[in-house]
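This section describes the prediction task in plain terms. A model, or a person checking by hand, is given the sequence of a single protein chain and must write out its three-dimensional structure as a string of tokens. No templates, partner chains or ligands are provided. The sample shown here is typical of the held-out split.
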Amino acid sequence: MALALSLTACDGSRRSRPPHDDEASSAPYQAEVEEGLGAAVAILVDTSGSMKNEAPGDSRSKAAVAREALEAMFDATEALVAKRPEFVVKVGIYSFSSDASTVLPMRTFDRAAVRDALARLPRPGGGTAIGEAMRAARPDLYRAGVFRKYLLVVTDGENTSGRSPDFVAREIFEKSEHGVQMYFVAFDTGADRFAFLKDVQGDVIGATNGPELRKALDEIYQGRILAEASTLGEREPESK
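The expected answer:
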């Protein structure tokens, strides 16, 4: 299961022509709308065939265990929004197997909508198109209307379909002028498969079972993304 996130800095007063989706996936970063304080998180969930296998130490599938861990992760968002209603948090959920699809279009966080989206994740089947999912989520971050943008990927295997995540990560990193922060959770797979993230200022955490997956998501999402966005979000991020 994959999930990815990105952080992009730009001028909040700038407006630009909305690029076509194909253009947006490869063009240098340009906000499509005026941007303000807040964070947008694109979450990429692996629904490839291997996710139907039992999770280590659990009688349930890896897909079920991952969905439960994501539910717990979003509890942290709900708590932050309740505590700081003025801070905008937007969430988009994407799934990928042999190709990528949008499960929940990027929108202001709504717990009921997120819960429904997680329940609608496709049944596991097919290959693993991590790079294609990353590329598909990027234009939606352009339209989010907030300064800070993240890409979070949860996956249990290496890329087997479409563009490689290594290539796409470097493309995003370069075209957004080093402003994109990307995190991966390697669930029941080697974290070293995603060592390229170090070259794009990203990070990967391994998780061999359900409790470790939940801990990894909590560390990345609550301990890094929400903590960073809610504190550094007091000002416009500096260009790098």
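For orientation: The domain at 21-232 is CATH 3.40.50.410 (Rossmann fold).
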